[in-house]
Amino acid sequence: MKQQLFKNLLWLIPIIALVWGFGFLFADDQKLVFEDPAFEQAIRTELQLEDGDIRKDMLNRVEQLSIPNNGIRSIEGIQAFESLVSLDASGNQITDLQPLARMNRIESLQVRDNQVENLEALSSLRALTSLDVRGNNVATLEPIEELTNLQSLNIRENNIESLQPLQNMTVLRDLNARYNNIDSVGVLTQLSELRERLYLEGNPIQDWIVLSDLYDQIKDKDFARPEHQLVFSDEGGLYEQAIDVAISTLGEAEGVIRYTTDGSEPDESSDIYSAPLHLEENTVVRARFYAEGIEQSAQVTHSYLIGVDTTLPIVSISTAPANLYDREIGIYVPGIYYNPEAPNPEHTGNFAQSGTEWERPIHLEFFEENGERVLSQGAGIRMHGGASRTVPRKSFRLYARSDYGENRFRYPFFEEDTREEYNRLLLRNSGNDWNNTLFRDAMLQELIRDFDVETQLYRPSTLFVNGEYWGIYNLRERFDNHYYEIKHGVDPQNLDFLENDAVIREGTNDDYLALLAYMEENGAASAEAYEFISSQVDMNNFIDYQIAQIFVRNTDWPGNNIRYWRERPDGKWRWSVFDLDFGFDLPAAAGTVAHDTFAFATARGGTSWPNPDWSTFMLRTLLENETFSETFLTRFAHYLNTNFEADHVIQTIDEMAAVIAPEMEQHIERWEAPESIEDWEQEVETMRQFAQMRPHIVQGQLMHHFDVRGLGDLTIDSVHQDIDWTIAGRTANELASGWTGAYFTDAPIDFSFAIDEPIDIESSDLDVAAISEEGELLLLEEGTASVRFSSPEHGTLLELSVTVTHMDQEEVILETGQTISLTSEEAVHWETSDAEIVSVEQNGTIKLTM
């Protein structure tokens, strides 16, 4: 009986499990889990469901879904909306539309302002009557050529070259194709219903004339009557000698062409074109067609640069002279706002004003070094900078806006960047370095390009304003909400962007102030406090940021030129680097190559610029934590061996100086700032000398501040060539056998290898080169050792020779005129940062002379 009961139980258990399993599967089938939390939250908002499960039965009858501007990256799971007819997912960060591939009921789809490159997923959505893919990266319309029920199509601001796939869309009534790369519109003549709207502005169209017969039938259009379109015999560009430029209309038309050559926009009072224009000098020609006194064509602008000899790309700006120089509205002059009686009169004046009311319209052209014009569009311009607005050659800020035409500068200006669109650009005069090297900030940012910080891309260019030579300018990116949206995909509504002492540029400073309050109360020394702060601050970024500023000796910081940002709701704070012009011995800056910038950046009690107490609080508080302190010290040592190594820095200086050197004579002739080519070369040499001496000085200062016993030289004997690896959290792939770097004793050095297997570390002398429990290398006592990193599958990964040397530190105070002699068996060379203050002979004799 018991045996039979046991058998029945055995049968019962699988049955119960099966029933339970089906119940679980059923429940799981009803409960939906979305790949993207932002997508799920947007759905909850639409459903007004704060918490609880989202089930299929809640969604399968929904016909309309509106989820714009929610920071959504993936719409995987949208398939549960089986009855969906209308979807608005605009203003997100969606790259893949594949989840829509089988949603055949959709009639209206808006995915504008996302990051979509391919429309293949929409190829079978035959019910679509309205499609909006504006502001994406779509290159071809071929995937949607069978969507013959489309009545409205918005493809504005993509990379589309051909409209030929529209040939079968015979019911299409509304087409917005602005700002693509379309050169032919002939196919549109086959679309008999295309009568509601046709927008084509911002395309290099060659066959406008084919639209002549359709022009009067289209209700809403953004282009002039095709026969009124203006044609220039020669495009703007570089010409070796004088040129005759003829202007005509595309077809026969009754009216006049009016033009200007002073940069202003033509109006009904401008000169009437009657014969080809003979141009012997740099000239900007702007023209428009008029019939019966009314403008009938878009304005056309061409810059003709005659006999210009430059090795740099060219930026040409054209605008009404009054926009720059008029006493009341001119943005470049002291004007009506200048107050010589003000405490700081240099901060008054028209050039010191800001905001949209001080933005002026321009036409912007960009020419590559070979003279090819690769960009021509309307834009806005404002003044840029702080104190440098007062100098004769000022900086400009360029704005792309729909008000001027295209809302992006769509060109890959910077070779090292994959992006092809920008919303804001700077034409920078090199800031406080405007009359010295002209590339100091750009060079210093280049040194830290691979740091975990935001830096601004750079391209030296030659500027012309209304045809007048304006000299060398630095084309740069600008940090603002548009930068973080385009570069990092951060929805502007979710951006917190602050500067200096938590001043709000975008978003809110609530979380940052809460973080500071926590640090004030709890410090950072404890593991618990550091863990919390690390959840709010990107520590790798913060460490790299501080190291960069300290090494270059930026004394217009940390009480100024600070910007940091995060993405809500849970992004970490990150710092961005800009305006390093005070670094590397700028003549106007305080301090010399021996400036103790670490002490400067951690000083307490300051009340004003350049290092008030609030500006040093976070770094000095974090240095109370042992983990942070050790990471900071070892990372700094690594950068002194690599990015800041003297020969590497000098090579960077030389390479960047060589790019602008051919242009310097002409630039100096225009501005006399610097006064001569010799002065410029001396300023460049000053940076070389700074680069030569600074690493050793900073190394010694760090040893003093952190009470370091000595240094250990690590020499690579061998390294695995096929495996990525890091030192101190930074990539070391470029380091090869024979390389030697100096690291501080007693600070752990982390090594990692991009393999998924255990790493074995062996040291020939653990007293010299110890291995911590975490697998870090510790340099301890004087002596030599060899260290080997290996893995079971790959064998030897890295072999190092280690030599540790301890050093004594002693402070000596001299009176003026006093001489002392220093001796050291190890020293082979003595240097001084300023021989006029302290002279040093090679035998070790030191004299204070001032």
From TrEMBL:
Highest taxon of the lineage: Bacteria
Record keywords, A-Z: Leucine-rich repeat, Membrane, Repeat, Transmembrane, Transmembrane helix
A Pfam family annotated for this UniProt entry: LRR_4
Residue ranges of the TM segments: 9-27
Domain GH29D-like beta-sandwich: 236-300
Protein name: GH29D-like beta-sandwich domain-containing protein
Organism, as annotated: Halalkalibacter wakoensis JCM 9140
